[in-house]
């Protein structure tokens, strides 16, 4: 009884050669490197997964230890609260310093505007007066109460002739 037309059974002497068919050899020669790289990747993936599984129970045991000792948890929370309080106080101090600096800058701007307005009312150049006011602020209040010095006699730029 023939199942397929044109198919003939192989002779009994060649039956042991049919165990490894010819296409497997051509498959290995064509895709051997890809198969090798896939096997290496699978090996590393299995190693990574096994390390992750080995690390997981130890993390759960640490959590169980913390649950067993509530005083450790309380101390940890108190330390965290104290650190937060310190950081908040530091931040508040920085904010206060910044506000003070801004207040001083606003006061200085206000003084400059007043000085500029006064010099404009007197009919003077406000830019020159502004420079003088800045020099007075730098030198201090003691020189502002002193009598302004007269200019020393300078030689004329051109000759007398």
TrEMBL record:
It is a single-pass membrane protein. Keywords: Coiled coil, Cytoplasm, Endoplasmic reticulum, Membrane, Selenocysteine, Transmembrane, Transmembrane helix. GO terms for biological process: endoplasmic reticulum unfolded protein response; retrograde protein transport, ER to cytosol. Residues 151-161 have a biased composition (Basic residues). The chain crosses the membrane at residues 28-46. InterPro entries: Selenoprotein_S. Residues 125-161 are annotated as: Disordered. It is found in: Cytoplasm; Endoplasmic reticulum membrane. One of its GO terms (cellular component) is Derlin-1-VIMP complex. Residues 131-147 have a biased composition (Polar residues). It holds the Pfam family Selenoprotein_S. Residues 84-115 form a coiled coil. The keyword Nucleotide-binding does not apply. Its main location: cytoplasm. Belongs to the selenoprotein S family. This is SELS protein. It comes from Rissa tridactyla. The gene is Selenos.
